[in-house]
Design goal:
Blueprint (H helix, E strand, L loop, with lengths): L4 E3 L9 E3 L2 H10 L7 E5 L4 E10 L4 E10 L7 E7 L5 H11 L4 E6 L9 H22 L6 E2 L3 E2 H5 L6 E5 L5 E2 L9 E6 L7 H9 L3 E4 L7 H16 L4
């Protein structure tokens, strides 16, 4: 049986005895119904993972002891940031989940002219918390020990103008270059994915003025969530650790 991986947002050390946080305890105690002396793999985002044994378990609390510290390299050599215009329904959640599994390091949700999603105030705060939890769950599932950051929502033009030293890419159906024709090596990249209705002419011009390179994925028009995951996969195959 596969050992469950649980995110524990606290310092972890060999021999330590601790109580899992509320989310971890709920998953282990209520969902998985695990009992002593079953084992867990804990991680806190520092790049390591910690083999632990359950010493006490109930529906409300789970106590564990850390037995082993493991160095497990699961991060891509490509430092990849995704700027994703917020999509409707569960498409944004799907994009976040799968992009984390594919190795993205940072995700910035964006507002654009043709973004059809309306969120503000408490609803927006709750949505950001939900997206971060989705990223954590994707790390638990995929074996990553570094949790990608879900940044606060930004306006697209502000994000485009942020200082950035790596390669900056914008998907464009009439681009002259494909990912396969990009120069190598690339260790840092920022990828812009627009909304369902595409970027406006002014937004494309702003991206170009900020030295974003237009790239083409192929002859077919892809949905925003498909475009994001296809581009991430292609970048990881060419510059990262897929394939």
């Amino acid at each position: 049986m596969r050992i469950p991986r649980i995110f524990q947002p606290s310092p972890l050390a060999l021999g330590q005895q601790l109580s899992l946080d509320e989310d971890g305890a709920n998953h282990v105690g209520r969902v998985l119904r695990m009992q002593p002396p079953q084992q867990l793999m804990l991680f806190n985002g520092d790049g390591q993972q910690f083999l632990a044994t359950i010493t006490a378990s109930s529906k409300k609390s789970v106590e564990v002891q850390i037995d082993e510290v493991q160095q497990h390299q699961s991060e891509s050599p490509l430092d990849l940031e995704l700027g994703q215009v917020i999509s409707r329904g569960d498409k944004m959640e799907f994009t976040i989940q799968k992009s984390v599994e594919l190795g993205v390091n940072t995700i910035t949700p964006l507002w654009s002219e043709r973004c059809g999603v309306k969120l503000s105030g408490d609803r927006l705060d709750k949505k950001l918390q939900q997206w971060q939890k989705i990223a954590i769950a994707a790390c638990e599932q995929s074996g990553r020990n570094v949790v990608p950051q879900i940044r606060p929502v930004m306006k697209l033009d502000e994000w485009l103008q942020e200082p950035y030293d790596g390669l900056k890419l914008n998907l464009h159906p009439r681009a002259q270059y494909s990912i396969n024709t990009l120069p190598t090596p690339v260790s840092q990249a920022r990828l812009l994915i627009g909304p369902e209705g595409g970027l406006s002419t002014a937004e494309i011009a702003t991206a170009s003025s900020q030295h974003f390179t237009d790239i083409l994925l192929g002859p077919r028009v892809l949905r925003t969530e498909t475009a994001a995951l296809t581009a991430i996969t292609a970048l990881q195959v060419r510059f990262g650790d897929l394939g």
